[in-house]
């Protein structure tokens, strides 16, 4: 045997041992409570009382991780590992333990027999770790609690990271999800010169929980054509014999890395590189590979029966206990771990050096790499307020000018993500300093398309959210702008990210990352032609359900407040910030100095709109710019017709300020809340969203029984802007009527009440005839 062949054979033998060690640790996590290295015969008491977890995908993940370690060492690669299969936690935990990262961040789990026992016990155990690659797992940037987003996270991590390779394993069950189907198109946005690389590894093991997986039942040629159609260069590694599979995987990975290096080298000499055909790997292995072939006379390996725990009832069934003992022994732990329980040095040498271990890669703990944004002085983008209510401009249009300056100063670590709506949402000023990143075909009439753009537009909310999460988790900054009605598409993605952030607060080695900033515009109250399908403000309710210390919701009433809030959000860390602001031209209320003070307070009395002298008869409050407009118009009517009535106007910009201080860090104390809303006066509250959210936030306050909230009542259609608020009783006339009903002698105000009814009737007749709102509505300005 030639020396080179002998070295290769020896290397494969060590990789196989490393793989066996990872498999052994994975099985042990699922089953073992004691006797972690089988120093004595396995007894029922050595097995956990509750068997939880997933085995089926794990050996394939361990196989991939071991072989990625080899190419990292051979080529000194900067690589992270994204785990797509939802319950691949045992594999990633096992591998990060073997490479030494796990014990470094968790010194209470050392690399010895005692550490292995702790590693086993904590898995799916009260107070321990879950079965997916969660925030507690070193090297993870993909929660895994829900399938479909691994490849989006991987590409998000690669954008603006030219030296990084992201190896992303996609499970064949995960491959059936809608988001994953779209995520393959991310290669149309990846610039080989300025971005990193994503190496997708589609792991086909044949089955989901109880059914065959679609892609595993597609023939080789059809599968190859599918991924060639996506624009990839697919390589296939298929089989079930470990020795042959090690050889095939090593050869294939070498080819893939060679392709990647050739693409990167070629791109260095190109100003605008063309989209290459990036390599990907299709890995086909048996489900539950290396596990028991049959359990209770049914097939296990290569069957959906191995998806979760291949067999249970170990305490009651001696045959199952024997089966487990034989399974564990098949990995020959005595050949893997020394007398102290430490991986033998020669096997351990297959892991990369500490700085190159995938579990220790800084890009998977992005806060370490986070650079502060170079933000312009937001005051320089102030809208000049000539008088309250003027000028009449788009607030998001003004925000776009500020964001353009942010983009210009921070290219390479700040991006804006939007589902084909940037211009629609009046953020077009960004295109004065950057373009949309695009590696697809270009036509002569295309606008603002470039191979190096800071704006990511794709008609997929899943893509925008997933890319942004991956971008943030690897140490960069960004903003996601979306139509309000369709942000619900990413409800569950936000849910996963919120849980990730919450967990990270209790993990000392996880460094803070830039906040997830979401701008919602094209909102419920201005859908003149889209109609009912585009009318839903309920995302705020979803966000409000998350842990209070994680979430913020802002409803700025004008451009200066919007810019102030945006600046604050971009500076924040480890939060989810949701900003709701309309794109249509609107009246402007506060100068920048007042906006800054107002945003800092969260909620405040607008004294210029009030005449209460500190003792109001009624409080009119609002949150959101359309509710602010209607509330101020109602205040104006009351001042004109009932000048003796003492009215206080309160504007809420930080919705979380309505919560008690004990519940939310931005919450108002009871004293401050009562100072704003009084302890005994009626409060007519006009809200951008569903009224129940305000009641929920304020229910424990002194004066909550006097709160009368008006908001979206699920009444909508294709109609005029003012008719939308009328349909939901959020309009100025209905707000005035609500005030009158709460006065001590409501019959005293019959004349004004009749006038309001008349105005509502006049409105209905006018729009039916003219198709637009009455001039007095369209031309109304604040004059008091």
From TrEMBL:
Residues 583-782 form the Xylulose 5-phosphate/Fructose 6-phosphate phosphoketolase C-terminal domain. Residues 11-368 form the Xylulose 5-phosphate/Fructose 6-phosphate phosphoketolase N-terminal domain. Its EC number is 4.1.2.-. Its cofactor is thiamine diphosphate. Belongs to the XFP family. It comes from Methylophilus flavus. PROSITE patterns: PHOSPHOKETOLASE_1, PHOSPHOKETOLASE_2. HAMAP family: Phosphoketolase. Keywords: Lyase, Thiamine pyrophosphate. This is Probable phosphoketolase. The keyword Lyase applies.
